[in-house]
Design brief:
Blueprint (H helix, E strand, L loop, with lengths): L3 E6 L13 H19 L3 H5 L3 E12 L8 E12 L2 E10 L2 E14 L39 E7 L15 H7 L8 E10 L8 E8 L2 E3 L8 E3 L4 E2 L2 E10 L2 E12 L11
């Protein structure tokens, strides 16, 4: 069992008005470490891409235990796990001073761009990659929208050139910011977890319609003022959960569960700033 490690320093431009790292920045730290893992162990992402093979995100879930702030020095770990059929598993962890701040899980497929078919796990040699156990997260990796849930449209996003990657569609790390921006009263919130399922691409110039629904919360009966349990299992006095879906050309292309909590403006002055 082993894990691949890279060291990063967050920039002042990576954070929001509360000095908390933006959701897309966290997703990029994870995926960049994965890309460096591929570069150092081979085959690289680019070697596969120019052979007509491309990794496509299927699911990504992040549990954020503590917020990341400007100039934080963090170690990001990633590793693979034994795949199933055409599904490739990868996990991640972000630590600051040896304390885990973020843990994440992802599922991928590898598409043959020439044939349109998916590659079986055994068709690509990843034997040089670090392998370890799959993460268990507090935020659910798989979820389903209740049949009676009512979504409201809360915004749109036009896919710009700068949102896209080599596959010609909006990169999977862009969605986190797009969705987070439409959480009610987001200026007073911090992200504590997000689970996403990617179902279809959003090409450049397409319109991404954003829909939101509040996840119902019911008292857990265990006492304590304002302590609730939402229907996805979160139990905290300040926790809120929302379902999101994005729609492109009339079809749902992503589904998400977002967990957040109240936050105060980050005012502690870090001597490194």
């Amino acid at each position: 069992m082993a894990k691949y490690k890279r060291h990063f320093v967050l920039m002042s431009y990576d954070v929001d008005a509360n000095n908390n790292a933006k959701p897309t920045i966290i997703a990029k730290l994870l995926n960049e470490t994965a890309n460096l893992h591929m570069r150092d162990r081979r085959p690289t992402y680019y070697e596969l891409f120019f052979k007509g093979l491309s990794f496509i995100a299927v699911r990504m879930a992040m549990e954020i235990k503590e917020q990341l702030h400007p100039y934080d020095e963090v170690d990001v770990y990633t590793w693979t796990a034994e795949g199933k059929g055409a599904t490739f598993f990868r996990c991640y962890s972000i630590e600051r001073d040896g304390v885990e701040l973020v843990r994440a899980y992802s599922e991928w497929t590898v598409a043959n761009l020439n044939t349109g078919k998916l590659c079986h796990r055994d068709e690509i040699d990843f034997s040089n990659y670090e392998v370890d156990e799959l993460h268990e997260l507090d935020v659910p990796i798989k979820f389903h929208f209740p049949s009676d849930i009512e979504f409201e449209k809360c915004g749109e996003h036009i896919v710009e050139y700068t949102d896209t990657d080599m596959n010609g569609h909006m990169n999977n790390t862009i969605y986190q910011n797009v969705i987070w921006s439409h959480v009610p009263d987001v200026e007073n919130k911090k992200l504590t977890g997000i689970s996403m399922r990617y179902m279809a691409e959003a090409p450049q110039c397409s319109t991404v319609e954003i829909y939101r629904a509040k996840v119902c919360a019911d008292a857990d009966g265990k006492g304590g003022a304002d302590v609730d349990t939402d229907d996805m299992g979160a139990r905290t006095s300040t926790s809120e959960s929302y379902y999101f879906k994005t729609v492109v050309n009339g079809n749902v292309n992503t589904a998400a569960l977002v967990r957040c909590a109240k936050t105060e403006r980050y005012t502690d002055v870090d001597k490194r700033i």
